[in-house]
Amino acid sequence: MVIRRGGSLEGGIASSEITPKDAFLNRRSFIYGAAALGTGAVLLDQVPGLFHPKAVHADQKLETVPSKYTVPDVQTPFSKATTYNNFYEFGTDKSDPARNAHTLHTRPWTVQVAGLVKKPQTIDVDTMMKYRPLESRVYRHRCVEAWSMVIPWDGYSLSEFIGWAQPLPSAKYVQFISDDKSSDMPDKPSALDWPYSEGLRMDEAMNPLCLLAFGCYGEVLPNQNGAPVRVVSPWKYGFKNGKSIVKIVFTDKQPKTSWNESAPDEYGFYSNVNPSVDHPRWSQAHERRIDSSAFPKTIPTLPFNGYADQVAGMYSGMDLKKNY
Ligand code: MTE
Fold first, then answer.
1. Domain boundaries, the chain
2. Which residue from 55, 97, 305, 308 has the highest number of Cβ atoms inside 10 Å of its Cβ?
3. In the chain, what percentage of residues exceed pLDDT 70?
């Protein structure tokens, strides 16, 4: 995602627009291909792993159990999934979070549960992590910028946590608010209103596919991937998945969400992966699948990111072109 004209996401191109010029030139970027996705040229320094910082291991292994919610696709290497990130609090270039997110203090860490719940309370993230066995779930991860990865996340269904939180029957939505401590994130860009906020309708949040993740690749989440706790809803574009969550709010109204507030014509509230609804500035019909090769191939995008069987029923009767 690239900030442009005061805040919108951009389709995996033109890092020259956001990278300081000297750094950009030093990285000797040059164009190797054009219009692969109908979005314009692809720059070499956008190829994950080529000119990016080294992956940083959190160095803490997790005990996990296998999960039935696992796709057979070839996994994206750890080194790419942890160095090609969107985490704007730490910078807008894909390589910035891996370089900068070490300033995030992930312990002690609490998550406040608020709004329409039986008992508002605050829970320590370690207690939260131990609440259920962590499943290793290999999910497709599709970014709105038309690239995708396949990542083994470690966590348990968000619905389990919601069961613990006991929302009131009047709760219709859940909002996830990310950390925004300036001391930990001194260089937040001004294009988004902080804190980062995302939300789901209650039935979406209760869908067993929706994961509360504490780790990936069998290790605690690296900071740049949203430590210590994040959401992963794999049938939606990546921006729906708030990282480094500090507050979960149950509400009866559709919550304000960061990208939808910043550019409502480009980023809807639902944001289900939908190859037939183009972003106003690029096609969503294909995606660049980031795997171990230096030149990732382009593959067709599947409705609901290939999870239609599990989730399409939640949207029956809705016009998903309008509710994009
Ligand atoms: N959460 C916060 N707090 N800040 C962000 O900038 N970016 C979103 C999402 N969650 C973002 C965030 C976007 S645009 C994407 S694609 C995914 O995180 C990226 O997750 P990944 O870096 O683990 O692939």
1. 25-315
2. 97
3. 82
